[in-house]
Design goal:
The chain is of the alpha+beta class. It has one domain. The chain contains five helices and eleven strands. Strands 4-3-2-1-9-8-7-6-5 form a nine-stranded antiparallel sheet. A hairpin with a 2-residue loop joins strand 5 and strand 6. The chain is globular, with a radius of gyration of 25 Å.
Length: 271
């Protein structure tokens, strides 16, 4: 390369470097890939639980404080200490449902549980959205479909129509209608009295009304803030916060149910 060519190359290089901000030049050797572009209103994908009331002792403590801020010294509770069930929630009941709660609890302690997924029975919507199970969201015209891994549970969220508040019998998953508020999907659910307990021993009535505020703040994060209100059964609404991580490489595990000689049991299929 002759002298003129080397001078020209040097000038071009100097001009190119001058056009790049100093911070960018300094970071270039260790630069990471740009964040994945995504639509925050696109909720489809396979979502794995990262935080629910039943993830661990710390998450249960946070759930109790959110539900009952007055319980400053609530004992540390580890969900792992409750095999084949979930730790009880500190719900304050109306007199009618306090009596029902005590009866259901006594029956459970006597080996006669009212209803539970561990007996191969499907659980209701509130149980499905507050427990730490994976689920997949699929989209179809006018609706979203939520497939929960446990017992193959399926429920729908419809758009562009009102809730069916009358002339509808109570169901496990009721009627759910969604609307967008900015990038937050607000889902209201009614007609949920077909199950009657939140998890194993916490009853609710046909007056239960659930509101979920679902957000996708980052590409691989989903958050759900839940307010469940039942003026007939509870003295105040219940609040929950759950989070999920996107894992589109994950495949559904099959649930199997069989009689182990002492009652029905449900487990994931062996690997």
């Amino acid at each position: 390369m002759n002298l003129v060519a080397r001078v020209c190359l040097g000038l071009v290089t100097a001009v190119w470097l001058a056009l790049i901000p100093v911070g960018v030049r300094a970071a270039a050797p260790n630069a990471t890939a740009a964040p994945v572009s995504y639509d925050p209103r696109d909720l489809t994908g396979f979502w794995v639980s990262t935080e629910s009331p039943y993830t661990n002792a710390q998450s249960y403590g946070r759930a109790v404080r959110l539900m009952r801020p007055d319980l400053k010294d609530y004992p540390v509770t580890n969900p792992d200490d409750y095999p084949n069930r979930h730790p009880p929630l500190p719900i304050r009941y109306t007199p009618e449902f306090e009596a029902l709660h005590k009866k259901i609890q006594a029956d459970y302690d006597a080996g006669k549980p009212y209803r539970t997924g561990y007996m191969c029975q499907p659980n209701g919507l509130l149980f499905a959205i507050i427990t730490n199970q994976a689920f997949e969201i699929l989209s179809a015209p006018g609706r979203l479909m939520f497939f929960r891994e446990n017992i193959g549970t399926l429920w729908h969220v419809y758009f562009d129509r009102p809730l069916k508040k009358e002339f509808m019998s109570p169901e496990l998953f009721g009627d759910s209608v969604g609307r967008w508020e900015g990038d937050t999907l607000v889902v209201e659910s009614t007609n949920l009295g077909g199950h009657a307990v939140v998890v194993e021993t916490e009853p609710y009535s046909q007056s239960l009304h659930v509101v979920q505020r679902i957000r996708r703040p980052t590409y691989d994060t989903l958050t759900v803030d839940i307010v469940a209100d039942d003026k007939r059964a509870w003295l105040e609404p219940l609040k929950f916060h759950v989070t999920y991580r996107l894992d589109n490489k994950r495949e559904f595990d099959e649930y199997q149910c069989w009689d182990d000689g002492g009652g029905k049991r449900m487990e994931f299929a062996p690997e």
